[in-house]
Amino acid sequence: MNSGSNSNNNEKALEERTHDIPTADAMTEFMKQGWAPIALSDLSAHQSIAYTKIRREKLSKQYVGKRLIFPAGSLKVRSNDSDYQFRAHSAFSWFTGIVASDCVPDSVFIMEPAASGHEGLLFIHPRSPRDNDEFYKNTRYGEFWVGRRMTLEETQIKYELQVRQIESISEFLQNKIDTLIVRGEDLAIDKLVPEQADTEKEFLNFISVMRLVKDQYEIEQMQKAVDASVRGFADMVRVFPAAISVPRGERVIEAAFYGRARLEGNDNGYPSIVAAGSHACVLHWIRNDGDVLAGDLVLIDAGVEVESHYTADITRTFPVNGKFTEAQRKIYMIVYKAQQAGIAAVKPGAKFKDFHNACMVEIAKGAFELGVLPMSVEDSLKPENGLHRRWQFHGSGHHLGIDVHDCAHARKEQYADAVLEPGMILTVEPGFYIQPDDTLFPEEYRGIGVRIEDDILVTESGAKILSNALPRHPDEVEAYMAKLLK
Question: What's the pLDDT score for residue 1?
Answer without folding.
Answer: 32
